[in-house]
Design goal:
The protein has 174 residues and is mainly alpha-helical. It has eight helices and no strands. Helix 6 crosses helix 7.
Length: 174
Amino acid sequence: MENLMHRVEQDLKAGRKKKACDRLRNMINQFPNDLSLRKKLGQIYFKAGFLDEAGKFWILSKPDNNEMRDAVGIYRKSLSNSGNAILKDIVFRGDKNLLDEHAKKVIIELEQDSLKVTKQIPVFKAKTREKGTYPENKTNFFSKIGICLIIGFIISLPLLGILKLVEMILSLFP
């Protein structure tokens, strides 16, 4: 993860904010419980002038200053303060039990509002792929024979056509 953060910093120094944001989004998907990644992405959006987008990533962080508080307010207002819409937008795929008290409180408030208004709470499962859970594609013996026969037929078809054509031409001149 340190290597990825170094790359993000290098992208920012080189002026490649979009690339840095993409890297941070991917890291958020890989490490959803690490709120510092969301905070860093929010800072990039804030410096770029996208206050509502900064608020989206700062909503789970405890506000350090008035800018963070204002950006989160703008973000909430942009989604009509709808708990369901905010939960669908921030897509938190981590374990709520590993979060700090502020983040837990925010998520619980959003879930309660969503349940009250829409009678449901959006749930996002973590995108994890464990080793050994996916079978490898193995072609059996008969599949290999079938593929060889098809390839042989495709190759022999034009040859047979040429031989038949030569035979027809020779039959015209006895």
